[in-house]
Amino acid sequence: MAFRRLPVSTCVIEVERKFHSLAVRELTQHGGLPHFKNLWKLPDQIIRDSYYDKSNILSSAGVWIRNRDGEWQAKIKKGGDFNNSRFEELSSIGDIAAFVKRATGIDGRETINFGLQPTATFSTTRETWVADDEFHVVLDTMDFGHQVGEIELQKTLAGENGGAPTERQKQQEMQIMDGRIVAFMKMYAWAFSPGEPKGKLTAYFERLRSRV
């Protein structure tokens, strides 16, 4: 008797917590107590982002559609608040187009930016460290002078019996991931400056308004 493996539907979930800035001049494994179990730095990146929306329909619903270095991405907020965000990420052109159509009623192709309008464009210099094998410590410096950091965890979540992951599965897993980030930041509090962080898009639009 032959058994056929059912295709497994997956989704990518991400949990992140922002921080104001690093409290040390350079992030190193032994820069404070307790030491990181391990730490390595990834190559610096220059990222070019363009964000798209339609009459703020998407952003007001916690959805960000962007083109990052030629690749389309959608980040759909699944909970949390400004500093503690939980997302489902889409990278398939078909999935993004279908989501935009559901959210806005616009049936637009990739070649016309899914029928959306550009709202923000800027470049970011990104420094990234991987700590304790899985926590991404990210420090972004934008070309308009703003800086903000994030601790990120990402996971590919599989559904059961070939089905898509349920919202309950997503929320339960993201709750666990967020708790782990909280514990990580508490343990290595010496690495992160106190103070209220400000997101890159918030800072970008504040700068635009100040010029009017």
TrEMBL record:
UniProt entry keywords in alphabetical sequence: Acetylation, Cytoplasm, Hydrolase, Magnesium, Metal-binding
Organism encoding this protein: Trichoderma gamsii
CDD domains: ThTPase
Annotated ranges, domain CYTH: 13-169
Pfam families attached to this UniProt entry: CYTH
Biological process according to GO: thiamine diphosphate metabolic process; thiamine metabolic process
Catalytic activity: thiamine triphosphate + H2O = thiamine diphosphate + phosphate + H(+)
Tree of life domain: Eukaryota
Gene Ontology MF: a single term: thiamine triphosphate phosphatase activity
Name of the protein in its database record: Thiamine-triphosphatase
PANTHER family hit by this protein: THIAMINE-TRIPHOSPHATASE (PTHR14586:SF1)
Family stated for the protein in its record: Belongs to the ThTPase family.
A single cellular component GO annotation: cytoplasm
Subunit structure as annotated in this protein's UniProt entry: Monomer.
Compartment list: Cytoplasm
Required cofactor names: Mg(2+)
Top-tier EC class: hydrolase
Purpose of the protein: Hydrolase highly specific for thiamine triphosphate (ThTP).
EC number per UniProt: 3.6.1.28
Keyword Manganese: no
